[in-house]
Recover the amino acids of this structure.
């Protein structure tokens, strides 16, 4: 018998009819490459030095999901399950996501990010250095 998962977002009863592997989304190499690019860029942003690593990681994943176009069944970038697993809701990561977006949009004009752009312009990383852009209004943050 396979491993089973508890669904803490709904109630405390085990979901005995849903094996763990059935709930894991398929591997997405573009999402991984985009998230890595954003995380690497975050290391070069002075404004993020005092921000918790876990918050930067969650914000990077949120921004990568937005850029790649990953949404849940309701069309949301971030849902209760994502918030549960990362520990951050959209209201907590919104500021960091916007900071990341601002700096990444300006990366082509920033000489400190030249080697980062070169690394992520390769086929190995799906040329994500060219593609990390999204309009702020498309990030689904309430104003």
């Amino acid at each position: 018998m396979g491993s089973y998962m508890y669904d803490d977002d709904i109630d405390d009863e085990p979901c005995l009819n849903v094996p763990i592997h059935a709930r894991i989304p398929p591997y997405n190499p573009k999402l991984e490459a985009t998230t890595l690019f954003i995380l690497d860029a975050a290391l070069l942003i002075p404004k993020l030095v005092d921000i918790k690593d876990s918050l930067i990681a969650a914000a990077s994943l949120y921004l990568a999901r937005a850029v790649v176009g990953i949404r849940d069944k309701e069309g949301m970038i971030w849902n209760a399950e994502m918030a549960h697993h990362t520990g951050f809701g959209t209201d907590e990561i919104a500021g960091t996501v916007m900071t990341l977006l601002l700096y990444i949009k300006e990366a082509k004009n920033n000489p400190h990010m030249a080697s980062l752009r070169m690394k992520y312009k390769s086929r190995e990383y799906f040329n994500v250095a060219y593609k990390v852009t999204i309009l702020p209004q498309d990030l689904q943050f309430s104003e």
Summary: The helical segments are 20-23, 29-42, 53-68, 80-86, 90-105, 114-120. The mean pLDDT is 82. Residues 44 and 112 are 8 Å apart (CA to CA).
